[in-house]
Amino acid sequence: MISDSFFIAGRHINCPYRPCQDYAYNGYKPNGQAFVVVADGCSSSFYTDIGARILTHLASKRIQEQKNIDVSFLDESCFALQNLGLHIDSLDLSSPLDCTLLLAEEKEQTLDFLFLGDGSLCIKKSDQSYDWYHIEYSSNAPYFLSYQLPEKLDAYYQNGLGSRNNYYKEVFPNNRKILQKEILVSDEINFDIVSLEQNEIPLFEPWFLSINKTEVESAVIFSDGLDHFCRQDRSLVDAKSILHQICTNLKNCTPNILQRNLKTFIKWTEENHYFPNDDFSVGLLAFSSKHK
């Protein structure tokens, strides 16, 4: 199985020179199994371009150490971030680490996925259909891992606002975390919807999925930048068009296929006068052409 990833900066109208706050990293465990990690830094928090890189490399290290990606990973990551924060004096730790974290890992029999925050997963099945999982928050306010940092490292607490966990609950009392799953089939230019289901899932818990490798040809994870491609009049492009352009071009998978296709993807967006109004990161796990 191969892994690949890329990330691009959005063309922000109001802040054109802001650094890219998305980051993606892919690699292989010592046993050769593939993994990919994507992080999306909050645009309204400071230095999350740094935080996204810290979280991504921390998660990658833990995967390479053969640690399970399950609910316990949340506690392990918080513990590691707490220790890391004790050694960062120049940055407010509670701000740079305001990031979502999306992970995909190959296991012996399965592909496992863990989402801390919002984003998308598109799985191409062996029957040539696509399962698209899309997680979003109704108040457009993802719950970040950093909200669970201890109060002594928390700027909100120091300012007398209480813990960020409580602050989040008070500011977004009606926030809901929604998981939408669509089964799609491809035509030449877009996806047709075979079925759609939508469910509310626990707001403060990571989302986990495990699927047997025999059912999969490829799996692609996306930051929420997938939902923020715009036309020149700033109207939103249907996310399924972006999804289709990327996922259906994963043919004859060889190493670096995503990065090789990036120029084609950018050219396609320019020809259609689309632009990313948010940073955009993508990670891939796919069986190689030789495997097929």
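[next item in queue]
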Amino acid sequence: MGFMQGALDQLAKRATGRATQQGQQGQAQRDVHRQPLTFSVESTVSDTLANLACAGFTMPVSGSSERALMLDEVSTDFAREGLPSAMSMGFATGDALVVPMWEGSGFVNAVMGRDQWRVVSQTGGRLRSVAYVADELRERNTTWHLLQVVSLEGYRSQGGEDLRGCHYTLRVARNGRLTDDDPGKFPEWDGYDPDWWVPDVDRLLVGRFRNFTRDKLHPNGTYGVPVCYGCSQMVAEVHYLLDQMHQEFALSEKAVMASKDLFAKDSSGALVLPRGKDRLFMSVRGGSVGESTIREWAPTIQAQPYMEALEVCKREIESAIGVDSGILSTPEGYNYQNVDNVRKSMRKTQSFVDHSRAVADGMLDDLAYSWDRILSAQGFTPGEYEVQHKWSDEYINTFTDMREALVAGYGIGAMDSYDYRLFVLGEAPEVARQRVEEIRQNRLVSIDA
């Protein structure tokens, strides 16, 4: 990890003439990289918020052209898997980059966290050049990194027109330092094109999810900061409480083994522990030395105080992030009667989700454009298409709320009888349609009579 970040920082510094902003000032306690081994507060928060924001999301691409069908396929796949991953990575690391690549028969959308890429240059908040780690090789004490640099550069067309294109180049780093080595000398990297273009574009062909959490000391920084920024003390406290609770559980289950030589007989012949050793938490049942047994002992674990303290810490973290309780902590036992009460109880979470989706909309627009331009560069026939971002608010709507809304709509004439029977009464479409027709015919017969 250190070599990789060092190579990226060196590459960015050569291009800009200054060191890159790390984007993690004041984040004394981070646990996002602990997830494979243990519980991670940051990873849990990031995954939960990303799944909440992406629940029910679809990204249909409409149109009858071949281009529309191809874009609809890649957008469907990305909405299902890539978008939650990109949002979660953006929350956890502060800044996520998505790089679309054509792999001969389809797209691969590589999602990278803040540690895996760097901004080389940008103008007015729009990326003009980025660098990221494309691959890694290890040989004994040497680590090689293949760095991909993607830049928006101007060029002149054959007709003499000034255009801009997306330029892809490769660099090699050895143990965190840039070299002039040719990537072609590594057989493992034969599949990488060292220099290629996607012509006639107006932006860099990447997507970026920059977390909207801001470092108050550096509000105009280059990168976003993790969603748990400012929660260092509470994150450390959560792990402390968990460790303490586990230690006490382990103590309560530990069997104490000892040699009978530890004991001595008092004046009455009973087995006792010599002075200084009687602080051990054990008891000895009487009898001769050969009959003595040791009974394990440990204080009974008091779980409730730990659970209550953990809940306090989790609610503090949720408050600092800007969401309502229930993301990390246990949801409070309210009985919601209608959707208005649900919305009122989730105002902060709704605001957070809405803001996250607005940021994601920008990333999705850039990705749809990137997919289209890359397909054109690969020689596919252009065609008309329309992309939609359909977000869902089902996370605050219950079935009861929906049914009440449908009943009210039927009462004021906003929905017909077929919809009422289908959604409210739960009848199958063919049954609902038949019953509506039967009732209509009976009414006509009654009127004629």
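[queue empty]
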